[in-house]
Every structure is written in C-alpha cells, then in structure tokens.
C-alpha cells in the first residue's frame, strides 16, 4: 500500500485555503444523517466533538474517566503558542512554522506544520470568546511569555494551569452540545476494538467500565483522540490511565503507526524516590529561566552528599560543575529539552547523580535569589543590606514567579527549594510518534481519523514547549471539522450503520475472548509487575540514548515479557463488574506489543534526531547527528502477521521552504 | 530527607460491591510504608498485597496523580482529601501519618454522589450542572473577534482565573453537612459573570445552574465554610456570596 500524504501543492501559505476551497462539503440537512464517534475528551477530542456537533453531525463521545473534564490535557502547565505577534517582536506564521520544523529536527511534514502555525491565531480568539481566563497585563490585554528554544514571546498562559483552562473551555463547549442532545456522552466507557466494514471504519466495541457490559457503537467515521503512549515506560508524567489501546487496536486493524520511537524526555521532573513510585511529576520548563543546573565536580563530594555528610549548600562555587553552562556557553541552562535531558543522563551515568538512586541533578535558585534580592534592595534604597535581608527579598521575587511550583515540589519531597537546591531528573513526558495520518488527519484506514497527540504529524522528532496544546486544539477545532466533510460527503445516502453485522459480531467476540483470557488466566503475578518489567527495559534500553546492541536485546526481553504475561498474569474479579485491574491488564497487553514496535523503530533509525539519540550517530562533541541522506522519511509501520514482524513503509519528507541544517546550541 | 522505613498502619476501609449492595468497613494492615510515598501509592501497596492473597483489590478513582484532574476523592479520617491543606488525596504524603496509626478511608458521602464500588462515587451530577449553563454560547468557528479587541481589567481576569481553577473533585460537597454544591456551582458562575464574554447569558446561566443543582439533590448553603477549608484549590467563599447576588438579581429581573 502506497502512502499518500494528500498534501496540497502550490505556495505553502496558500495550501490550506486552497485545500478547504476544493474539498467536499456536506450540506447542513445531510449532516443530521451522519454519525461520528469521537474517542477521548482531551483538547483534541473535546474540541473535535464540540465542533462536529455544532456543524450538525450526530456525535457520540467516549472517555474512560468519570467525566470528560478529567483528560490529561488538564495537567499541561506552561502555555500555548500562537503567532499573534501581540508583542511586536517580529513573530509571524512563518516564524512559528520555521521554529516548529527546526525544533522537530526536520522530521515533520512542512504542509501540516504550516497549517498548524496558520490556525494558531484562531485558537486564542476562540478560547477568549469562550471565557478562558488567560493572563493579562495591567492594560487589560493578553500577556505573553517566552518558552524554550525560540527567540520571540508567543506563549499565552494562565499561570501554571494553562492546560486546565483550555480543557475546561473545550469541556464547556462540549457540555453545551451535550445539553442540547447533539453529543451523546459515554463516561467511564473504554474503546477496545475498531470495527471495519467493507474497508471503512464503521464503529467501535466499547466496554462500560461500571457494569462491564460490552457494547457495539456504529458511525460513519471514527475519530481517535486518545493521547500518547508515554506510559509504555511505566513511569512517566502521563496520567495513570493514559494508554495506547485505542490507537493500538486501530493499528492491528490496518492503521499504520508512525515514528513510535520519537519520545520526549523532559529534563525537569521530580526524581524517582523508590520502587513503589507510581508516576513522575513535571516541574515546568519555565524554571530553567532562573535555575542553574549542576552536580559536584568530585566524586568525593557526591559520596558525601549521598551519605548525608555534606549538604549541597556547603559546596563552594569551585566545587560545582554547571555542566550545561560549561558545554553550551551560548544557550546555557536554556538548551532545548532533548539536549538538557541527555546532558543530565551523561553526568549521572558517570556517577555524579546526587541522590540515593544516583539519578538526580540540582536545579539551584540561590544565584537568582541573590541577584533579585540585590536588585530589590537597590530599588528600595536599602543601604548595606545583610545577606539574610537580600535573600529574603530575593525569595519573595522567586515566590511571585514560581510560587505554585515551589509549593508542589515541597509537598512531594518535603524539601524547601528556597533554601536548598531542587533535585530533578528527566522523565518521559510526550510522544511525538503516533498513528500515521494524511493531510486530512485520516489514518491509513478509510474513515478512521487521529487527532492531537495520538497522531504523528506536526512535531517531528522533538516537540517545542507550549506546542502540544496548540496542536490538540488546532486539530479539533479547526482542521478535522473541515477535512472530515470531504470523506463524509460520500456517505449522505448511506443511512445508519447497522451493528447487526458479521463484522460487529467478530469484533465483539474478539474483545470478549481477550478479556475472558485475562480473567481466566489464574496466573501468579499482578498486572503492575509486568508493567514495571516492561518499563524497566524501555527506560534502560530504549530511553534517552539507544544503541544497536541494547535495542536488539530489548526486543528479545519484551518478547519474553509478553510470553510471561500471557502465561502468568493474574487478574482478580470478574468481567461484568467495575474492575480496574482488568482495565489495566488489557492496556498493558497492548503496551507490551507497542514496546516491541518502538524498539524495532529505534533500531531501524540509525541516525540521531530530536528525542531519538543513537550512540552510533553522534558528533565528536557527543551531540546528536542526523543523517538526511538516508533517514529523511517518516517510518510508518504496518502490523504484520504477529507483533514481532512489522512491515515498514516510508513517506519521504521534502523540504522546499526550509533549508536542512544541523542544530547547534553551543 | 531521611527515609523512615517500616511505617506500619491499620487501615479501616469502606468496601461495597456495587451501588445496590450494602457496604461495611473492613480492616487491613500494611507494613514497611515509606514516608515518601503518596497516599495513593500506599493504596497501591495494599492492592498488590490483596491481589497476592487472592482477595479483591480496593477500587478508588485516580488518574493524573498531580492534583489537577480532580479524579481522586477519598474521605480520610473524616476529611475529604485527608489531613493536609491545599492538596488532593494524590498529593497527600505518608509523612503526614505515624507508624501505628489507624486510618479510616471512606468514599465521599452525599445523596447526589451515589457509590459505584468501594471508594468510587458517581459525580456526573456536576457534569449535568455544567451542561445546564456553565458555558458561553459561542460556536467554535474561529471567526470570533480578535482576542485583544476587548481589554479585560487584570483584577477581573485574575479573579475569574481563581474561580476557574476549581477541579470539580466534589470535596466541597463531601465536607458540607448539607451536601451542598454551592462552592462548585458558584465558582463557574463567578468565572463567567466576571468576564465580559459571559454577560449576555449571565442571568439565564445562574438560574439554570441553580435549578439543576437543586434537581440533583444537593443541599443548601448555611455558610459554615467547611467547603472553603477542605477545597484543595482554595476556592473562596466569596464566590458563593457572588452567586447569591447574581441569583437574586436574576430572579428579580425575571419576575419583572
């Protein structure tokens, strides 16, 4: 099967407009005759469901949480990018497009990224109209801040809760349509299978998580907005319930999975503290504006700190290694996420990690506290202030900027980050890979769409900060509602899709059988045992740095975990009841299969790009080295006869508007 | 941060098979709990233990485990989200307890929040209240006016934001002797009535939302203020006062 991206031709700034002018449109009277299923209620799914219902389609929306307001988009902290140029600092649609392609290390599709930059401005208008309370300046206009790796201030924000405010905006738009009866909402329902009739996605099999009932739902098209798969690593900043199942079931039915190995590992998360740890918590990227990252220069001091003989604050400046400032003098602590994460790993692998697990570095605000303290003392005319006075003044400034994050840190660690440096370590945060989609966001299955983090299209091999929210809402509010009409225009005479067909029978039976197997397995090990095993292999061999030998052994180990899981997993309780362990078991089974594909993809891509670092492909200084001659393509994997034999299809990436360059942050 | 290993605890947990069964408190013991664990990680340890003993694990709602999704909902030693202030259950850490403690863990209790299983309750009443009017009726066409066309005083925007940080967990209802949802409803009413975008539907909104709130079986507010104390996000009682004013005004206008 050939991959047709359906990207429009012509000048890039006219492509989206021309495309919209030339695609099919369904007339309003006919939209009432068409059903669309939307799975997931995060930024992409919530906004898509609301927009499709407003247009007149009959929408069925599904989420596994108890309310559509709880999807994990809600946890995004920093902000949302948009090329508004309100600061008059030279921002433009082109610059946002350029930054995104470059930030993604030239592994994204130009047409899609340009469209994303183009509709970004509508998102802000839309959200303000919905009553999203963005941060404002004293003049009453919207405030912006700067974010990692770009030269302009284009990030809109609502304190440290931007994701929450945007999601509640989408949720309120959805709620309005639910109240009108235009969206039928299924809370606590999980999609467990995609149903394909005559080559087209025509419905899903879902499980009511309260009663355990297996249900058939039909539609003319199915939209998967089910997020990323970071939980394949067990520990990540994702929510506990975040999973790959919807995407993976579609993949097994013929949807190609693109670039599964592109994972974002965020440099500033609170380190793991023990084996019981269930998830990791992010500390916003904005902290790197004022925090300096370091480890001790000597192993003796590392030992002294680990055993509690010395405190980090007792080390002199000369005894500290500010390794980011040392290696990247021009960008310093503000290098992009992938670079900062690898540098932390390099120091910790060399034995300089500062906590009991050996996996932590310091993020130190003491210099900023003194600097701000002196500034305030000068402004307030305090002559000869004592050091304690300066610190107190400086801490106040830091509290105003990052108070909520400092409080969150203290609640988790019981350490006061005003007095002692924070400990941080990289953690899995976002997955750039996902279901392959064309320009219309349709997967390689007709009528099956993927939106938001669930698709692969816009971030290449590394996502820039504050771009995930932008992409989720762009897909759901402004892209999918148009492009889906092009396909559905052929369905106006189809009539309702019957669930009484052999295809629905088969799909339901398959789900039933899968769940029965899990319930009746009577094994000896819990689901979490296997999930942790998988996570360990993924983190150690498919994590921040990868090489051929490790990836090959990861593939074998994951196959062994899969066999062990099939034989020995133990799922208590029954099928037809509220059973969280059964939910987890079905998700982990899919994560194990995805994990293997992930390793195959990482093994095949013998270059370093963005979040994917191959030890074999680096410069003399240890930086990532791309190979544009051999790897300027999207890896789109087709499910083979079994999870160990995927088939690779390639979509070549052409860059006609941006020149390919090696990234440098020295 | 020295780790104190080996905290031993007695847990008294509400077990209830489903909505129609009668529930009761069961006693469990857990050992070697680290003080760095979050409360829900301690529950994970208990559940792993129950699974290994061929017993059914305890069901509880949770998802983001960083205090923002609003899924977790336990009533711990008589307080929603437990003894710490300004945190959800998932952010509560075991260092707030001592070895040898007995901890009572129950679901949020309210007529409008029926128990689904064990510690899991049905909070869909909150969704229905939002569906009755917790929005601005603007289509998501992207053809609205420019975001900066309408300046909003910073103080109003900040107050609207503070109200909008409600996570919809239901602790306000669980803490209230009347099982009132006034703090939750007033937070949304306040957010939208403080912003110019919310003016058009301002009166209709508060009337519809209050009416839905009453239909769902939530009680009235008698100003005891427990909700504000237990709210993990510090939503202020001022919002309830604002909603009462909004409701009164709207009612009078309607009668005119």
What is the structure about, briefly put?
By secondary structure, chain A is of the alpha+beta class. Chain A has helices spanning 15-22, 28-31, 43-55, 93-103, 110-129, 162-179, 245-252, 299-306, 323-327, 337-352, 366-379, 387-413, 468-488, 502-520, 527-541, 548-568, 580-604, 628-631, and strands spanning 35-39, 58-62, 80-81, 155-156, 183-186, 189-197, 200-208, 214-218, 221-224, 257-258, 263-269, 292-296, 320-321, 361-364, 422-431, 434-435, 448-450, 633-638, 647-652. In chain A, the strands form five sheets. A five-stranded parallel β-sheet of chain A has the order 5-2-1-9-17, sandwiched between helices.
Could you describe the 3D structure shown?
- The complex is a heterodimer of chains A (666) and B (256).
- Chain A contains 18 helices and 19 strands.
- Chain A has helices at 15-22, 28-31, 43-55, 93-103, 110-129, 162-179, 245-252, 299-306, 323-327, 337-352, 366-379, 387-413, 468-488, 502-520, 527-541, 548-568, 580-604, 628-631; strands at residues 35-39, 58-62, 80-81, 155-156, 183-186, 189-197, 200-208, 214-218, 221-224, 257-258, 263-269, 292-296, 320-321, 361-364, 422-431, 434-435, 448-450, 633-638, 647-652.
- In chain A, the strands form 5 sheets. In chain A, strands 5-2-1-9-17 form a 5-stranded parallel beta sheet, with helices on both faces. Chain A has a 5-stranded antiparallel beta sheet with strand order 11-15-14-12-13. In chain A, strands 16-10-18-19 form a 4-stranded antiparallel beta sheet.
- By secondary structure, chain B is of the alpha+beta class.
- Helix content of chain B is 34%, strand content 13%.
- Chain B has helices at residues 39-52, 124-131, 154-164, 171-175, 182-194, 202-215, 226-230, 238-255, and strands at residues 7-15, 24-33, 75-76, 79-80, 102-106, 115-117, 120-121.
- In chain B, strands 2-1-5-3-4 form a 5-stranded mixed beta sheet.
- In chain B, helix 5 packs antiparallel against helix 6 (202-215), helix 5 crosses helix 8 (238-255) and helix 6 (202-215) packs across helix 8 (238-255).
- The relative contact order of chain B is 0.13.
- Chains A and B meet through helix 3, helix 5, helix 6 and helix 12 of A and helix 1, helix 2 and helix 3 of B.
